[in-house]
Amino acid sequence: QVQLVQSGAEVKKPGASVKVSCKASGYTFTSYDMNWVRQATGQGLEWMGWMNPNSGDTGYAQKFQGRVTMTRDTSISTAYLELSSLRSEDTALYYCARSMLGTGVYFDYWGQGALVTVSS
Amino acid sequence: DTQMTQSPSSLSASVGDRVTITCRASQTIGTNLNWYQQKQGKAPKLLIYGASSLQSGVPSRFSGSGSGTDFTLTINTLQLEDFATYYCQQSYSARTFGQGTKVEIK
């Protein structure tokens, strides 16, 4: 069965960087794009960007350009999200989500989320 | 960026009711529209993709319709387990979500 298992909670100071991992299993990691979506407490979903694990190609939401980096290690079927210059507004639950290309692009499997808290 | 606007933001309904949630795109997006359900403390779950295709394993009381800029998610015969927040998401231009619609028990 498809599973996306994310790393644990992180606490960071403003200005620091954070790197969150997402380990995939149950499917061929390089055959599906990986996306990152975040959700602040009590708020809606915000798409951050996508990565093609096969080529390493990425596409980031304009809001995060210059601060976000998505990478992968195909040898261990793991995707990474790195967010730099953290501020308090970045406190959120960060989800990885596999995307399917069919009738449009949709997120069919999600990780459990990784809580990132930014606090001085 | 394509903005997605859902209405209503919240609604109260009873078990057995028929519920309709709408999603409007700021520009035409064809049928590149998906719906998700999120329960408290859980990751979102895909319900509908391509505006009207039911994801495998999702009960048939859920249905989606629409194209262009206006879309609808309908839940027929609301069940207790359907009380949750619902999000639309477009994939025509980058990816953006609606702000969500919370379905509460009346």
Q: Report helical residue fraction of chain A.
A: under 10%
Number of strands of chain A: 11
Low-confidence stretches of chain A: none
Strand content of chain B: over 45%
Largest interface: A-B, 24 and 28 residues
Biggest β-sheet description of chain B: 7 strands, mixed
Specify the overall morphology of chain A: globular
Q: How far apart are the first and last residues' alpha carbons of chain B, in Å?
A: 36 Å
Proportion of strand residues of chain A: over 45%
Distance between the termini of chain A: 40 Å
Please tally the β strands of chain B and state the result: 11
H/I helix tally of chain B: 0
- Kindly provide the radius of gyration of chain A, computed on alpha-carbon positions and rounded to a whole number of angstroms: 14 Å
Q: Give the biggest beta sheet of chain A.
A: 7 strands, mixed
Order of helices and strands of chain A: EEEEEEEEEEE
Tally of helical segments of chain A:
0
Helix % of chain B is under 10%
Secondary-structure-based class of chain B equals mainly beta
